[in-house]
Amino acid sequence: MKNYTKPILAAGLWAMIAWLFLSGRADGYWLVALILWGGGATFAFYGGERAREYGFWVVLGTLSVGAWWLFFQDRRMDSDWILCIHLLLGAMGLVRLFGRAAPAWNAPFLLAVLLFCLVWLSYQESINVYFQSVLMFTGINIIMATSLNLVNGYMGEFNCGHAGPMAVGAYVSSLMTVALFGKSQVFGDPSLSPALALFGFPFCLLVGMAAAAFIGFLISIPSFKTRGDYLAIITIAVSYIIKSTIENMNVIGGARGFMGMGQVTQAMDKAPQVFGLKTSWDLPWMMIWVFLGTVFSVWLLRRFVTSTYGKGIIAICQDEIAAEIMSVNTNRMKIAAFMLSSGLAGLAGGLLAHAIGYVNPSTFNILKSTEALLMVYLGGMGSLSGSVIAAVLFTVLVDALRFIIPILNSALHWAHLIPSSYEVSQVWKWVLIPLLLVVIMRWRPEGLMGNRELTDYFPGLRDYFRFK
Amino acid sequence: MKRYAWLIPVLLLALIGFGPPLAAAEDVIKIGFNIELTGDIPDVGEASKNAAEYLKNQINNAGGFDVGGKKYKLQFIYEDNEAKAESAVSAAQKLITQDEVLAIVGPQASKQAVPAGEAANNLETPMISPWSTNPNTTKDRPYVFRGCFLDPFQGPVVAKFVTEEFKAKKAAVLYDIASDYPKGLAEFFKAAFEQMHGAGSIVAFETFTTKDKDFSAQLTKIVASGAEILFVPQYYNEVPMIIKQAKQLGWTKPIMGADAWAGGDLMGLCGDDCKGHFFPAHYSNVGAKGETKQFIDNYTELYKKTPDDVAALTYDAIGVVLAAIKQAGLTGKVKKDRTAIMEAMGKLKDYPGITGTMTFKPDGDPIKCAVVVKINNEGKFEFYKSVCP
Amino acid sequence: MPWGGALLASILQNTLNALQWGSFYSLIALGYCLVYGVLLLINFAHGDVYMVGAYIAFFVATFLLASGGLPGWVVLAVTVPITMVLTAAVGVTLERVAYRPLRRKGAHRLYVVVTALMCGIILENGNLALLGAASRAFPELVTTTVFSLGDVKLTNLKVAVIVVAIGSFLILETIVSRTKIGMAMRALSYDRFALPLMGIPPDTVIVFTFVLGSSFAALAGLLFAMSYPVLDPYMGAMVGWKAFIAAVVGGIGEIRGAFAGGFLLGFVEIMVAAFLPSTFRDLIAFTILLFILWMKPTGLFGVARFQKI
User: Fold this and answer.
1) Which of A334, B111, C3, C12 is the most exposed place for a label (fewest CB within 10 A)?
2) Is it the case that residue B7 has pLDDT exceeding 70?
């Protein structure tokens, strides 16, 4: 970090505190809390190792007290938020204090707490449906980006038809859930009791994954001989063929799309009926499934690429012929990589279909594949945490710009920088996002993470989780 | 981690600092617009926004909208759904839960309106799609309405019209298979026409894919098939290319369109080649009277183009929502108001819109007439015939 | 008419259709191929450069028509060079602003490819944001005349498009194989580190490649706008992807390959739509391409690059 960055950041922090005070957004206790915050942060900037540690706790402590104070003052902050912030902070503290005893359990523990918080906040409607769906899309994009990274990053191929297997996974799993648990024009009445939806759903997702993995298998066969940009064309062609096939299948709606998954996700609430109970579990089920699916994909991919077997993929990326000589069965590795990558894409597709409650073949057009490519290369080839960060950044950016663009518009009008007749509309979103990415690429030509993981940059994070 | 601990307060401060200020609620009526500002059919989104802005300024400049003796300012929130199904869902959810709008207008195209309708219905918010003609949009969804006639109505109207007008016994269809609306309409037309003239009377049923520009192979087939009429249920931006290429390949017989022909600036794109053809429309902007004429004149003056069907239907859809709000009254409790608006909307009788009077059937579809218009030699859409259900 | 005659007419007609449609793919594929041959970069923004070309042609032509009262063919003759120069400027700007810095920093080529993809999206949506959503109608510069040869219909535009495509191919082929700069381009693709040692500035060669590729994209854009006179910001995206597919199927990096690949794709698409159910056009067309790539993994004209161990 350059030596002028810290003073600028500190000055910015204090300027913001001053502004919060002057604009009347912070008063009384808030001001004290903010000054403590700012002090703690400045302390952490400039102090030594020990001071940073204290600065960290000062910041967390003020945050905690401040949140409670607000709650008792005028309930401006929801009690659920307080609960969840404290649960998370507490869990992080526990891991910091005792985590070294059983490092393998740190990440699962933190994830479980996070899942509980998300579910609790959604259940209490402290996160509204819109933010829930943004969170779900984030998870789905994470699966999409990380799974594509296996082929495009670790194996160094250029797959630009990732939407193809996604479409297969989405359609197969949706058709299954609707046929089994939902009423539809295509299949008529549900063939199983809708109360079983909760338990049948992961099974349907698995079938969708298997079907998508089969597509991956088909792509991998030409990849024995064909490489590089020729393989890229094969992937595009396969995704076109899939899209065109679905469009021609009038039975399942064709271009009109397929729906009915909404009732299946709603039927998950009825799960207690299986045990003869009259209650209903009114939980945000899709959120839970997306969370589990995301954790599962990242876990599986991490296990795969760090295993001795999976390292063969990285060897293929470095030099295929050399890998062959070193007794890597390149053909089998390619099959494995394509099947795993496509299978997880199918999982993403299945989750997407159920999160929206509607699938349409044109959702899985070349733009979807482009988005996946973008996230992989933004994060960095061969970096799982990079793909995760890029997926989060991308999804959040897409939705944050919905809010930022109107602010930008009024700011520009206020400053008379643009003629009053011209409105900066949402159209600019898709100019600003790629522009930002081009700028990021210029700044970091290897993507955000290069081929390294987050823990390589921030070794302190190893206290909480390990990527390798 | 420790070295970067300062990031945490900075980020949290940024959240508080840039978060929405705790503004006092004003007396406003918030209506959300879930429209196609980018993507395949940006014209449609722009027309909807123009119509909405026009209506809003008209009412707000007159002091606001009167509900139960109290004046409310209108606040319209425009969300772009990028002409994508999933963005339409998140836009609807954002409008409902984040912006807390009373009702949503849009999406316009069926591909977006069908999934967005699901979201709106699940969240119990009234939604009215001005232009979506697909039956599934409103089916089994008490909270979802539409402002136009349906494809199952339009298809037979066209079939009947070509039979009576051109004495056609053999017809050809060219449509986009990857798009919901043309596909549905083409199939309804085929069914109706074959019912009248027997199986095999559709001599060519040709397709292409969205964003195609060359239709020569399909048109060559159609020209050779001996059809007496060509039905093109496509959007305004594809029609000129189809008609021009058909002409170059030797098609001299009449071409029949669908309501989407009037979705944008068809005549500006097509020029002379489109003149003399017919299509069913939601309203005809030539020879209008009263409020319709006033709308057309003002809109034309404001935006330098004649309002298309989308603009007129959006204007009417907002009108329907406002009429329902007036009838239901406002309590200030968003959820309660939404349900009241939905109930009031279902009970509207003979709402006098600029595209015709509207009464909603129980499933949320209006009973409305179609107007078959002819593109006359000045390039205007002239009233030719009115067909009512 | 007897069935055989109708079939023959239909085949002839569709051959002409396919030649015209393939010409556009070929012209755009040539641009992909030039840049790829030199830099190993898939310039995904190329389809959108072609869209920009069509828009520039639109503005130049409308301006000339409105200001001068010149006859259509004069306007066309003036529009062609202006459009080519302006579009070449756009292509070179992309190279300078987006690709060169990455290349200098030694980024993996796929990062440059994704940057190109982003640049394409910026061009599309920037156009939408700045010029508005309305599609534009390209003015009719030359009156379209329809010639009839029996049942086969031919327009002057169709003939012109095919002739221009073949002409462009011949010009490019001559430049690459007969001239000094062409030799430098081939040398750059052969060994980019040895080139500066021979006293040839690689950046000049690269800029020249982009000028060449973009100006032919502009030509394609202009002809496309004349044949299919509705312009919209997304018109380049789909054609761009398909032209890229054509270039690869032909054997990417080979001028002959791109040219043949473009016509091949045009033929497959048109013939499938004409003689098989058009509903299955994409399905069958892409299956055929897949099959070709399976049989010849380096495309029609491509030569496998041997790898030293």
Assistant:
1) C3
2) no
List of residues 6+ apart from A150 with CB closer than 8 A? A301, A304, A305, A313, A337, A340, A341, A344
Which residues partner with B301 through β-bridges?
A: none
What is the ipTM score, two decimals?
Answer: 0.89
3-state secondary structure of B303: helix
Q: How many CB atoms lie within 10 A of CB B348?
A: 16
Q: Which of B234, B259, B281 is the last residue of a domain?
A: B281
For tokens 């000055």, what's the residue? A11
Structure tokens at B76: 């319209």
Gap between the Cα atoms of B160 and B166, Å rounded: 10
Q: Which of C140, C45, A293, C198 is nearest to B248 (CA)?
A: C140
| B303 within domain boundaries | yes
Per DSSP, B237 falls in state T
Tell me how far CA of residue B294 lies from CA of B309, B312, B321, B355, C131, in angstroms.
15, 12, 21, 13, 28
Contact between B10 and A41 using a beta-carbon 8 Å cutoff:
yes
Q: How many residues does chain C have?
A: 309
In sequence order, the 6+-apart residues with CB closer than 8 A to the CB of A465 are A106, A107, A110, A455
Measure in Å the smallest separation between the Cα of A72 and chain B Cα atoms. Answer: 18
Domain finish residue from B281, B299, B323: B281
For chain B, what is the total number of helices (H) and then of strands (E)?
A: 12, 15
Confirm or reject contact between B221 and chain C (CB < 8 A).
Answer: yes
H or E segment and range at residue A305: helix A285-306
Q: How far is CA C161 from CA A23, C82, C231, in A?
A: 65, 19, 18
B320 touches B147 (CB < 8 A): yes
List pLDDT tens digits, range A410-432.
Answer: 888 888 887 777 777 778 888 99
Domain limits for position B267: 151-281
**B164 and B123 in a common domain:** no
Number of domains in chain B: 2
pLDDT at B19: 45
The 8-class DSSP code of residue A397 comes to H
Q: Do B86 and A49 touch (CB under 8 A)?
A: no
In a shared domain, residues B183 and B238:
yes
Residue B241 lies in a domain: yes
User: Considering the domain boundaries, does residue B13 fall inside one?
Assistant: no
Lowest mean pLDDT among A22-31, A160-169, B156-165: A22-31
User: B197 to each of B113, B162, B191, B253, C224, how far by Cα in Å?
Assistant: 34, 12, 10, 19, 40
* Rounded CA separation A436/A431 (Å): 9
Nearest to C293 among A234, A322, A425 (CB): A234
Residue B387 inside a domain? The answer is no
Cβ–Cβ < 8 Å for A66, A85: no
Tell me how close the Cα of A347 comes to any Cα of chain C, in angstroms.
Answer: 24
Query: Distance between CA atoms of A25 and B20, rounded to whole angstroms?
Result: 11
| Residue B146: strand, helix, or coil | strand
Q: Is B202 exposed, middle or buried (0-12, 13-18, 19+ CB in 10 A)?
A: buried
- Does residue C62 sit at the B interface (CB-CB below 8 Å)? no
What are C154's strand-pairing partners?
A: C147
The answer on B144 and B158 residing in a single domain is no
- Whichever domain contains B74, its CATH number is 3.40.50.2300
CB B237 within 8 A of CB C135: yes
CA dist., res. C59 & res. C127, Å (int): 13
Cβ neighbours of residue B142 closer than 8 Å, sequence gap 6 or more: B121, B342, B346, B364
Signed CA dihedral, B168, B172, B174, B175: sign only: positive
Domain C17-295 CATH class label: mainly alpha
Nearest-by-CA chain C residue for A152: C110
Interface check for A425 against chain C (CB to CB < 8 A): the answer is yes
